[in-house]
Write a structure and sequence with these properties.
By secondary structure, the chain is an alpha+beta fold. The protein is about 30% helix and about 25% strand. The chain folds into 2 domains: about 250 residues, Aminopeptidase (3-Layer(aba) Sandwich), CATH 3.40.630; about 130 residues, Alpha-Beta Plaits (2-Layer Sandwich), CATH 3.30.70.360. β1 and β2 form a beta hairpin. It is elongated, with a radius of gyration of 24 Å. Bound molecules: zinc ion. Keywords: Hydrolase, Metal-binding.
């Protein structure tokens, strides 16, 4: 009979250690557009203090890095159980914080600061354990995986996919610690952001019948999106595990034109696709791309050789779905003493990449609630942090 993870500190001291780490993590501003290296180096130092070596995977500009570190009996490149978190946080600009977002405030019941719920609270719990784990008593390795730029479309995690695939057979599974109130989550929708840009020539409106109209061209594509949405709503595909059981295209932003007496030169449309598992965001977006850069562009070019339509994908968070009866899901449910059925959530995470692309069985489970994330005075309850520590420690790896 295996016991939990062997750590040197007692419960109370481990909790205090975790809060001290959380204070440091929150104190480093890792908004997605900034470098995360100060945080990564802090983590690297913490782990090396307990004899754990970190490997960094850099972005092209060498301004950000993912970190992978394994503790325990890592013979043959074994990774065991992976704990995964993103290091970046969303911006605080335009939000009414009641104090410095990057200075942790701890009350009797909550810890307040940017990233406490999403997801530095989870990372602090992982680090508290890893910095105190007794390697020689671990029977299964423990791996920490930290990424950059999750909030702008899983950019860092995508760079780890190749490496994750080499772990196949050497990894039991991955816990992605996004805030789920510590319930075990087995699925979410996929999400992509796209931009279409329509360009023509600015002319006097008297000549309008002879000229391509970028706004009208954009409207044609929006019309198709509306028709597609209606098909998704009526004929699916439907996945009844979600409150909104079908995919959807949200036209989120449109911009173009100057005034009624000028033929517009330009129009751009930004939209988001949210798709149920098995209904590929790419296939939905490609319908709109094909229409815009095919038929619509041809019509525009028939009137002006300068006309051009461009399509860009701005971000991509794949959907996530693992069989609730999967061995790893059952393992986590049992270790965490989860009474509820595995859940489905409306927000995206890196789990879709980790399981769908990296082939590592995954669940999403972390302290705090999504409603407490991304807002002014973001917080996580101390109770959730304590429970998270207890849950992680209860994994039968000792
Ligand atoms: Zn997150």
């Amino acid at each position: 009979m295996s016991s939990g993870i062997p750590v040197r500190l007692s419960g109370k001291d481990l909790y205090a250690h975790m809060l001290a780490i959380l204070e440091r993590l929150v104190g480093i501003d890792t908004t997605s557009h900034r470098s995360n290296l100060e945080l990564i180096h802090y983590v690297q130092d913490l782990l090396s203090g307990n004899g754990i070596t970190s490997h960094l995977h850099w972005n092209e500009e060498h301004t950000k890095a993912n970190l992978v570190a394994t503790a325990g009996p890592a013979a043959d490149g074994d990774r065991g159980i992976v704990w995964s978190g993103h290091t970046d946080v969303v911006p605080v600009e335009g939000q009414a914080w009641s104090a410095d977002p990057f200075a942790l405030r701890v009350t009797d019941t909550v810890a307040i600061g940017r990233g406490t719920a999403d997801m530095k609270g989870f990372i602090a719990c992982c680090l508290a354990i890893l910095t105190q784990v007794e390697h020689e008593r671990l029977t299964t390795p423990l791996t920490l995986m930290l990424t950059y730029e999750e909030e702008i479309g899983c950019v860092g995690a995508r760079r780890l996919v190749e490496e994750m695939r080499t772990w196949e057979g050497k990894v039991k599974g991955c816990i992605v610690g996004e805030p789920t109130g510590l319930r075990v989550v087995v699925g979410h929708k996929g999400k992509q952001n796209h931009r279409l840009t329509f360009d023509g020539e600015p002319k006097h409106a008297a000549l309008a019948p002879l000229m391509p109209n970028p706004i009208a061209a954009a409207a044609a594509v929006i019309g198709r999106a509306t028709a597609l949405n209606e098909t998704f709503r009526t004929t699916g595909p439907h996945d009844e595990r979600f409150d909104i059981s079908h995919s959807w295209i949200n036209i989120g932003r449109i911009e173009g034109g100057v005034k009624p007496n000028i033929v517009p030169q330009h129009c751009s449309v930004e939209y988001e696709v949210r798709s149920v598992p098995g209904h590929d965001c790419d296939s939905i977006a490609s319908e709109l791309t094909r229409l815009a850069t095919g038929e619509v562009q041809e019509d525009m070019r028939a009137k002006s050789g300068l006309a051009e339509v461009r399509a860009e994908r701005l971000s991509d968070t794949p959907s996530f779905s693992i069989d609730p009866a999967h061995e790893f899901v059952a393992f986590v449910q049992k270790a965490f003493g989860a009474a509820d059925e595995p859940q489905f959530v409306p927000f995206g995470t890196e789990a879709g990449l980790i399981w769908g692309h990296g082939r590592i069985p995954a669940v999403v489970c972390g302290p705090g609630f999504i409603t407490e994330a991304h807002v002014a005075d973001e917080f996580v309850s101390l109770d959730q942090l304590q429970q998270c520590l207890d849950h992680l420690r209860s994994l039968p790896l000792g």
